Protein backbone atom coordinates (compact mmCIF):
# COMPACT_ATOMS: atom_id res chain seq x y z
CA UNK A 1 0.00 0.00 0.00
CA UNK A 2 2.74 2.48 0.80
CA UNK A 3 4.34 2.11 -2.66
CA UNK A 4 1.23 3.48 -4.38
CA UNK A 5 0.90 6.72 -2.41
CA UNK A 6 0.78 9.72 -4.72
CA UNK A 7 0.15 7.68 -7.85
CA UNK A 8 -3.09 9.58 -8.54
CA UNK A 9 -1.21 12.87 -8.49
CA UNK A 10 1.36 11.54 -10.96
CA UNK A 11 -1.39 10.26 -13.26
CA UNK A 12 -3.17 13.62 -13.10
CA UNK A 13 0.02 15.49 -13.94
CA UNK A 14 0.61 13.25 -16.96
CA UNK A 15 -2.99 13.03 -18.22
CA UNK A 16 -4.13 16.64 -17.69
CA UNK A 17 -2.03 18.14 -20.53
CA UNK A 18 -3.04 15.30 -22.84
CA UNK A 19 -6.70 15.96 -22.06
CA UNK A 20 -6.29 19.71 -22.65
CA UNK A 21 -4.58 19.11 -26.01
CA UNK A 22 -7.34 16.71 -26.99
CA UNK A 23 -10.01 19.31 -26.17
CA UNK A 24 -8.15 21.97 -28.19
CA UNK A 25 -7.97 19.55 -31.12
CA UNK A 26 -11.72 18.89 -30.88
CA UNK A 27 -12.38 22.65 -30.91
CA UNK A 28 -10.10 23.04 -33.94
CA UNK A 29 -11.82 20.20 -35.82
CA UNK A 30 -15.22 21.69 -35.03
CA UNK A 31 -14.14 25.07 -36.34
CA UNK A 32 -12.86 23.51 -39.58
CA UNK A 33 -16.12 21.62 -40.15
CA UNK A 34 -18.19 24.74 -39.45
CA UNK A 35 -16.16 26.83 -41.91
CA UNK A 36 -16.40 24.18 -44.63
CA UNK A 37 -20.17 24.00 -44.19
CA UNK A 38 -20.48 27.80 -44.29
CA UNK A 39 -18.31 28.06 -47.41
CA UNK A 40 -20.34 25.45 -49.30
CA UNK A 41 -23.58 27.06 -48.16
CA UNK A 42 -22.42 30.51 -49.30
CA UNK A 43 -21.34 29.08 -52.66
CA UNK A 44 -24.76 27.43 -53.10
CA UNK A 45 -26.61 30.65 -52.29
CA UNK A 46 -24.36 32.69 -54.59
CA UNK A 47 -24.70 30.24 -57.48
CA UNK A 48 -28.47 30.17 -57.13
CA UNK A 49 -28.66 33.98 -57.01
CA UNK A 50 -26.28 34.43 -59.94
CA UNK A 51 -28.11 31.86 -62.07
CA UNK A 52 -31.33 33.86 -61.74
CA UNK A 53 -29.72 37.24 -62.48
CA UNK A 54 -29.21 39.01 -65.78
CA UNK A 55 -25.81 38.60 -67.42
CA UNK A 56 -24.67 42.13 -66.57
CA UNK A 57 -25.26 41.81 -62.83
CA UNK A 58 -24.58 38.08 -62.49
CA UNK A 59 -21.07 38.35 -61.04
CA UNK A 60 -21.74 41.24 -58.66
CA UNK A 61 -24.99 39.75 -57.32
CA UNK A 62 -23.31 36.37 -56.84
CA UNK A 63 -20.37 37.84 -54.91
CA UNK A 64 -22.67 40.04 -52.80
CA UNK A 65 -24.92 37.14 -51.86
CA UNK A 66 -21.91 34.99 -50.92
CA UNK A 67 -20.60 37.76 -48.64
CA UNK A 68 -24.03 38.23 -47.08
CA UNK A 69 -24.35 34.50 -46.43
CA UNK A 70 -20.94 34.39 -44.72
CA UNK A 71 -21.80 37.45 -42.61
CA UNK A 72 -25.15 35.93 -41.66
CA UNK A 73 -23.51 32.66 -40.58
CA UNK A 74 -20.83 34.55 -38.60
CA UNK A 75 -18.22 32.12 -39.86
CA UNK A 76 -14.82 32.23 -38.12
CA UNK A 77 -13.08 33.36 -41.32
CA UNK A 78 -10.71 36.04 -42.48
CA UNK A 79 -9.68 37.00 -46.01
CA UNK A 80 -12.98 35.83 -47.52
CA UNK A 81 -13.26 35.88 -51.31
CA UNK A 82 -15.80 34.68 -53.85
CA UNK A 83 -15.32 34.10 -57.56
CA UNK A 84 -18.22 33.79 -60.01
CA UNK A 85 -17.60 32.38 -63.49
CA UNK A 86 -20.13 31.91 -66.31
CA UNK A 87 -19.50 28.93 -68.60
CA UNK A 88 -21.17 27.32 -71.57
CA UNK A 89 -20.45 23.63 -72.09
CA UNK A 90 -22.33 21.48 -74.53
CA UNK A 91 -24.93 24.17 -75.20
CA UNK A 92 -25.80 24.50 -71.51
CA UNK A 93 -24.92 27.74 -69.73
CA UNK A 94 -24.00 27.45 -66.09
CA UNK A 95 -22.51 29.57 -63.37
CA UNK A 96 -19.80 28.34 -61.01
CA UNK A 97 -19.03 29.96 -57.67
CA UNK A 98 -15.88 29.29 -55.65
CA UNK A 99 -15.70 30.69 -52.13
CA UNK A 100 -12.48 30.75 -50.14
CA UNK A 101 -11.34 31.94 -46.72
CA UNK A 102 -8.63 31.51 -44.13
CA UNK A 103 -9.87 29.80 -40.96
CA UNK A 104 -9.48 31.90 -37.82
CA UNK A 105 -7.53 29.83 -35.26
CA UNK A 106 -7.27 32.47 -32.54
CA UNK A 107 -7.36 30.77 -29.16
CA UNK A 108 -6.06 27.47 -30.51
CA UNK A 109 -2.39 28.35 -30.40
CA UNK A 110 -1.58 25.43 -28.08
CA UNK A 111 -1.35 23.17 -31.09
CA UNK A 112 0.87 25.54 -33.06
CA UNK A 113 -1.42 25.31 -36.08
CA UNK A 114 -1.33 27.81 -38.91
CA UNK A 115 -4.53 29.23 -40.33
CA UNK A 116 -5.52 26.88 -43.17
CA UNK A 117 -7.28 28.10 -46.31
CA UNK A 118 -10.49 26.27 -47.23
CA UNK A 119 -12.81 26.62 -50.19
CA UNK A 120 -16.31 25.71 -51.26
CA UNK A 121 -17.68 25.28 -54.76
CA UNK A 122 -21.11 25.15 -56.36
CA UNK A 123 -22.57 25.11 -59.88
CA UNK A 124 -26.02 25.98 -61.13
CA UNK A 125 -27.56 25.92 -64.58
CA UNK A 126 -28.45 29.45 -65.66
CA UNK A 127 -32.20 29.93 -65.55
CA UNK A 128 -33.64 30.61 -69.00
CA UNK A 129 -36.57 32.57 -67.54
CA UNK A 130 -34.57 34.98 -65.39
CA UNK A 131 -35.96 37.98 -63.57
CA UNK A 132 -35.26 41.46 -64.97
From TrEMBL:
Transmembrane parts of this sequence: 12-30
Protein name: Unannotated protein
Record key words, sorted: Membrane, Transmembrane, Transmembrane helix
InterPro entries assigned: TadE-like_dom
Transmembrane helix listed as a keyword: yes
Pfam families in the record: TadE
Domain TadE-like: residue ranges: 6-48
Amino acid sequence: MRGERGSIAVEAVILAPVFVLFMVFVAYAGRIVAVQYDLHSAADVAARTASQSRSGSMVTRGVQSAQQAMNLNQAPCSDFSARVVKRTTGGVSEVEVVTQCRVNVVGLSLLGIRSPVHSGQSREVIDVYRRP
